[in-house]
Amino acid sequence: MSIDSLAALVRTISDFPKPGIQFRDITTLLADGAGLRELVEHMAGIVRPLDPDLIVGVEARGFILAAALAHALGKGFVPVRKAGKLPGRTVGIDYVLEYGTDRLELHEGQVPQGARIVLVDDLIATGGTAQAAAQLLREQGGNVLMALFAIDLPDLGGRQALEADGVATAAVMAFAGH
Fold it and tell me: I want to staple 38 with a disulfide (CB 3.0 to 4.6 A). Which of 1, 95, 113, 122 is the partner?
């Protein structure tokens, strides 16, 4: 299946969550068995040469892709969640959104010192969440090899922001616009 065929499985919802936004909904691709398999195979092809120790997924759709990728590579999976969602002791980072602040957390001690990590999410827009997750992982002693996304929205500059922060970045697909 080509990248164009995968992109065709992504639904665009106009004016969500606010007017002027073209929301790229990956759930339609996830519901297509062949499409999901092909997406994970593309992602595995990008990550395999890096030989990471852990695949870290960002809540929520990043969990789906990261867990599938970890399985395909025979690696462990670690979730990065929004505040208050994990049981037990956590470590976290606060970060700024265009409409306020948020917090990401992971279990304390879940990232071994020097662990080689690939950070995964479904989509990169402005890059704020991915930058915060990468910083949290670094603060825990992890080595973030790459941030990998199914979709990049290049017009919003997230990929450039991550790379300026020293995080190599890749995406399987790109869509113009917001």
Answer: 1
Quote the CA–CA distance of 43 and 72 in Å, as a whole number: 10
The dihedrals phi and psi of 79, each to the nearest 5 degrees, come to -90, 140
Q: How far apart are CA 169 and CA 114, in angstroms?
A: 19
Give yes or no: 159 in active site. Answer: no
Catalytic-labelled residue, pool 61, 81, 105, 159: 61
What is the predicted pLDDT for the residue at 100? 80
CA 102 vs CA 32, 80, 105: distances in Å: 32, 13, 10
Q: Which of 24, 37, 48, 98 is catalytic?
A: 98
Q: For each successive 10 residues of the chain (178 residues), what is the average pLDDT?
A: 95 92 95 98 98 97 98 98 96 87 96 98 95 98 98 96 97 90
- Catalytic residue check, 163: no
CATH topology of domain 43-174: Rossmann fold (3.40.50)
* Spatial contact of 90 and 107, defined as CB atoms under 8 Å apart: yes
